[in-house]
Amino acid sequence: QIPFAEFGGGLVQPGGSLTLSCAAAGAAFNTFTLFDMGWYRQAPGKTRELVASIATGFGATKYHDSVKGRFTISRDNTRKTISLQMNNLRSEDTALYFCNRLSGQIPWGQGTQVTVSS
Length: 118
Prior knowledge:
This protein is mostly beta strands. Helix content is 4%, strand content 45%. The chain is built from 1 helix and 10 strands; from the N terminus they run βββαβββββββ. The protein has one helix at residues 26-30, and strands at residues 4-7, 10-12, 18-24, 37-42, 49-54, 61-63, 71-76, 81-86, 95-101, 112-116. Strands 2-10-9-4-5-6 form a 6-stranded mixed sheet, with no helix packed on it. A 4-stranded antiparallel sheet has the order 1-3-8-7. The longest helix is centred in the first third of the chain and has 5 residues, at 26-30. It is globular and about 40 Å long. The mean pLDDT is 95.
């Protein structure tokens, strides 16, 4: 069973907004509250990069410099989900977005495609 399923991607114009969601399943569901979580992205021809992270417990957040002030990560430990609110999207945000643990990643899901284009 794929541990994480990502949703919410799509085609949006520059300056637009999208909200991504990630649902944990299987073993990832049962251990969700134990791990800091992250949203990652991979653009064509580039390596996967960490976009935002959120800690377990009090939920401290960190962001890649390129998305600070535009993206907001959150988590729901009851539903075992994390979300990424993305505002003021830019063409360089175009990528396949994934969620996973911040460390000790387990198998990746299929991701959700975000395309920012006019």
